[in-house]
């Protein structure tokens, strides 16, 4: 497995920022949360304890990607571990990219009134210009951080 240390580094920064946003929101921060729109925004205005727990867990789950990327930096002598890391990184990259892409498509369809979502124009704009491309960018960082030897 060949590693692209530049993309691994970008993936690490992306992951820490992404998890950090969740932790900020879990601690009660509201900057940027309106850009998510819909029920997430509504729940964040007067959050139930269970919602706060979910936001904390989302941040922790996002940090699991950090562990994966950091494991890529080690020099493993075990071919099984190398293969597992390679495929886990590829799968994570595909999943992140597809999540962003599918959301981008569905939100775009909502913007042209093909689908009916509970997103105002502010949230629709930020989801299409920032959030969904941000997910896809993370997927690109993960996917291309490794390649076969």
Please write out the topology:
Layout: E1 2-3, H1 5-26, H2 38-45, H3 49-72, H4 79-111, H5 121-143, E2 146-147
Helix pairs in contact: 1-3, 3-4, 4-5
- The coarse silhouette is globular
Low-confidence stretches: none
Element order: H for helix, E for strand: EHHHHHE
Work out the number of β strands.
2
Helix content: over 70%
Strand content: under 5%
The average pLDDT is 96
Alpha-beta content class: mainly alpha
Output the keywords:
149 residues, mainly alpha, two-stranded antiparallel sheet, 5 helices
Structure in a nutshell:
With 149 residues, the protein is mostly helical. The chain has five helices and two strands, in the order E-H-H-H-H-H-E.
Structural summary, described in words:
With 149 residues, the chain is mostly helical. Helix content is 74%, strand content 3%. It has helices spanning 5-26, 38-45, 49-72, 79-111, 121-143, and strands spanning 2-3, 146-147. The chain is globular and about 50 Å long. The termini are close together.
């Amino acid at each position: 497995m060949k590693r692209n240390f530049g993309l691994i580094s970008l993936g690490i920064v992306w992951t820490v920022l992404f998890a950090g946003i969740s932790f900020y929101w879990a601690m009660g921060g509201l900057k940027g949360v309106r850009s998510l729109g819909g029920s997430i925004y509504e729940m964040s205005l007067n959050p139930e304890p269970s919602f706060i727990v979910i936001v904390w867990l989302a941040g922790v789950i996002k940090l699991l990607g950090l562990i994966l990327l950091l494991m890529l930096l080690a020099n493993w002598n075990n071919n099984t571990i190398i293969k597992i890391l390679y495929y886990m990184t590829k799968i994570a990259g595909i999943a992140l990219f597809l999540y962003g892409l599918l959301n981008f498509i569905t939100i775009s369809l909502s913007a042209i009134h093909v689908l009916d979502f509970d997103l105002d124009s502010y949230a629709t704009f930020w989801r299409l210009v920032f959030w969904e491309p941000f997910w896809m960018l993370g997927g690109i960082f993960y996917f291309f951080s490794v390649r076969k030897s």
